Amino acid sequence: MARLLMQTKKGVKEFTLGANPITVGRLPANTLAFKSDERMSRQHFIIKSTPDGYILMDLNSVNGTFVNGERVTEHRLKDGDKIQAGHTIFVFKED
User: 14: domain range?
Assistant: First the structure.
């Protein structure tokens, strides 16, 4: 099972990843929407399941998507990867 973890003031939020792609951005239509993060694009990145694992793809965001501190356009996610979009930070976990 794969998950995205996000630290908040109230604790850790956990989002389970499955076979369906998830989109992340400010727009409410995204799977994970963060309308208050002004540095996040309307549609910032997508995560897709593949036979080889999960792939993160930046959706031409203005401020970029960073994995482990490096700007990426596409990245195969590994357990423990730190993803930053705008001010929001996630950790990818895979059991």
Answer: 2-94
